[in-house]
Amino acid sequence: MNSPPHPPRQALPTHGTTLTPQAFRTLQAMALGGLLVLVLGWFYSPLRIWSNLLVVAYYLVTLALGGALFLALTYVTGAGWHVAFRRIPEAMASLVPKTGIAILVVLALRMNQYGWQLHAGAPEGTDAGTYWFKQLWLDPPFWMARAAIYVLLWSVLALSLVAFSRRQDRLNPQELPRAIGSMKWSVRLSALFLVVYSITFSLASVDWIMALEPMWFSTMWGVYQFAGMIQATLAAIVIVGLLLRRPGRLLYGIFRTDHLHDLGKLLLGFSCFWMYIWFSQFMLIWYTNIPEETSYYIARMHGPWGPVVLVSVLLNWIIPFFVLLPKPCKRSEHVMMKVAVVVLIGRWVDLTVMVFPSTVGKLPVLGIWEISGACCMIGIFGLLFFKALTKSAPAPKNDPYYGESLSYHCS
Amino acid sequence: MTDRHLLATFDYEEDLLAATDEVRHQGYRIVDAYTPYAVHGLDRAMGLRPSRLTWVCFLCGLTGALVALWFQHWTAATSWPLDVGGKPWNSLPSDVPVTFEMMVLLAGFGSVFALLGVSRLYPGKHARTPSIRVTNDQFVLVLDEAGSDFNLPSLVKLLEKHHVQNIEERLSADQASCCE
Amino acid sequence: MAKPLDTKLPTPLREPQIRPPQIRPPLVEGDKSLGDVTRDICKPLEATPTGLWYAALCVSLTALILGVTAVTYQIATGIGTWGLNKTVGWAFDITNFVFWVGIGHAGTLISAVLFLFRQRWRTAVNRSAEAMTLFAVMCAGLFPLIHMGRPWLAFWMAPYPNTRGPLWVNFKSPLLWDVFAISTYLMISAVFWYIGLLPDLATIRDRSLPGLRKKLTGLLCLGWNGSARTWHRYETVYLLLAGLATPLVFSVHSIVSMDFATGVIPGWHTTIFPPYFVAGAIFSGLAMVLTLMLVARKTMRLEQYITPLHIDRMCRLMLAMGSIVGLAYATEFFMAAYSGNPYEQFVFKNRALGPMRWAYWTMVCCNVVIPQLLWFRAVRSKLALVFVLSIVVNIGMWFERFVIIVTSLHRDFLPSSWAHYTPTIVEVATLVGSFGLFFTCFLLFCRVAPVIAMAEVKGVMGFRRPAPERDTQETAA
Hints:
The complex is a heterotrimer of chains A (about 400), B (about 180) and C (about 475).
Chain A: H1 21-41, H2 46-76, H3 87-93, H4 96-109, H5 132-137, H6 140-169, H7 176-208, H8 221-244, H9 257-288, H10 291-301, H11 305-324, H12 327-330, H13 333-359, H14 368-389, H15 402-407
Chain B: E1 4-10, H1 13-25, E2 29-34, H2 42-46, H3 53-79, H4 92-118, E3 139-144, H5 152-161, E4 166-171
Antiparallel strand pairs in B: 1-3, 1-4, 2-3
Chain C: H1 34-46, H2 51-77, H3 92-116, H4 126-147, H5 174-207, H6 212-220, H7 228-261, H8 273-299, H9 308-339, H10 342-353, H11 357-369, H12 377-380, H13 383-410, H14 425-448, H15 454-460, H16 471-476
Helix pairs in contact in C: 2-14, 3-4, 3-7, 3-8, 3-13, 4-5, 4-14, 5-6, 5-7, 7-8, 8-9, 8-13, 9-10, 10-11, 11-13
């Protein structure tokens, strides 16, 4: 009864490849080339380069953290469907320390970008007494120390989640009770992760992105960042899952169409969630029309940034929603691949709209710096991710739900 | 096609599933199956096509949304324009909530009424069940005894392999009387 | 009649069925057969009601009559019978409205959201949770009607061509969005509930001896006969309804929150309100489901269907929702401090330290602090403790709405207009009456419809032919 069941029709591969050597070389070229261009650009326009670096680093750290979030959410909900491809989010989660250091470096490059209006004192015409907290909160040393603490906490928890899962590989496959016991510890750790994550990530998103407009505030901000993050994470899982399920690759015969279908449903759902959160924040600010709140949207929706905001809505919601509604589309490799790419581009546009109007200015820019930023991001993520993936067995075969994940039917 | 039907009764869903699948692949005609609950995978075993009710739902939802959007725009900007809180007459963001609700309302009611219509369910309809136990704890597979390749002995053998509990032949017109 | 073979469709069933090892605990205890499930769940319907049921009905009816009296009095006399004043123009009535809408949300969460997430334990509680949704939304709908003062003119809220212009309703008003949201929610919940009832009504029809019960269920089940073709379409529509009800449940409480958040009043206007209200609504609704289920499983002898496992799952969900609500409280405070806006800062200082601080701290204790006990399995498995906790959460969530509405209003921009608010006896009687209505409806529901969705429980209980080699073990055990 405890013998691990086999997937229908296909034998499990023992070892598969991740990427072709050519693809590896392309990724290397993208990462190095992109980084080189950005470093050169620093002498040309530091602010614009820094904005690109911030988008890249924040995108990377949220993808990595998103992997950990996916793991934690599936553990605490007792999910079994995803176990077969769990190494994908695990490999993403194991990148939290590296991407975390990247964002710390980027933040350290321009600490004074945040809250610069306040460093000299309270804004004119306001009661100085009401700004003491903001001045304290955005004080560069305190602000930087907090960032380091967030990254440290995330790294410890994400790496522990991954380590707990990899420890299962060393168990004897016949020992179901021990596998269940180890899973229970993962569930507890995940609960802890979720508590820490929800507090620290809300604060981090305020510190790193919202504070670029130091006079603006929105209580929705943390939820908005969470929505974008989980949507992009799902899209990334879909893309690497599809790459790795090709014949001869690492997850051939493991990453099933039912997994793709379920990921498609989640992507559809979280696209709608992103739209819901985006719209709620926008609509409440638009409706009340209070000057200190509308400043954020006036900078982004009146003028040349307006069409870019519409593009972000198109890519993050309209396309995924209408394309993924029919069931056959969620089960189609081609459609899912394209939608996932669209969503990842949408996330980039969304982050650009958050960052650039506050730093670079009123005119949307798309030049060599932005393109090298995107290339650099894809390259770094690809290299680190596929390297992390090879550090463990391709599938957590000793997980109690492994059999369920390989045999369930998605309706 | 004849009006002679063969009713095979099972006690377990797995028997019904396996029998249905095998019977269908042997080329027998399946009229229907009767189950006390939705048996997962029975649609595939019977070879039923995916339901087209999803399209009804989508089109109803689209209609609801478009009509609501148009109506709000027409009342607020054309029929009797009113200045509310200094907002423009055609304020799209404030039209979204009602548009969404109307979309859900029409999509939901549309698909439910389509279900009732397609399945011919209406108040007071006389239920045609092969046995009163199909709404309790029995599974019945109904086969059509049509076709030159209908071979009763081999079919019975096949069904017995799948732990059939009872096999009986009925005229389809008789089915109505059996639930009394 | 029979459709031809569709060879294009996949036939995974032709391969030997894989049975992954059974790790998940069973959802129904006591080795039930399908027939046992039908009998156990139909039993309370077919027996005469117990004395406890009559006693409960008497109490609920008394409360309902009290409420009807209070409502009749306030409609005849006017809204002046309430404790409202110029500063606090919204208080008790709206609190009750938001409270009841929130209670309804757990029903849709359990029936729709958990269905989409394949949480199969939902089958034990979804029927009664959906019924609860219906009754809670009915209670909620009453409060705005009463608040109109002239409820017979309620039809003015419908956009119909009229002789006043035609003067259309104001589609830019969140209060009108509420009208659409609540009525859509009520109708979709009712349809969802009724569609779910069809197979069970057919089961009762086929069980009953000829008589009124058989006639009525036969009429209401629309001729359901368990045909696989109908089941196939039914499953599709059920999935569609779940897919529609999920965003609907988000939208309803979001729109309720917009009644406040589209205002410019500090404490009301904050962007996090929509998701925060949704989480709070589900939180309070789960608490109410737990309260009702813990009583129902005992009095109706359904312990083997609503097991400690189900209670545990609901407790975990409640903990998660409570923590989200706690995070939202913290976010609001943080942003008030961070914003530098003196009015925001004053409102939150006033909430925690002002004259209404008792309400604020009741809310924090009941919603955030005490539910943290649910982290411990020992607490989640003590059903008496869970029952107490569920009531504590209900109280806390009522106070949350009271705190948001009243503390934001009672000290406004002009200190000379600051005022206090105390509810009158009429308002309290109306609240008691709404509880009376809710429990009366629920008690009657327990008598006329199966409280557990039989057809759904049968589908998830994993009832299989015992494997031959395990036969001996099982009989020995």
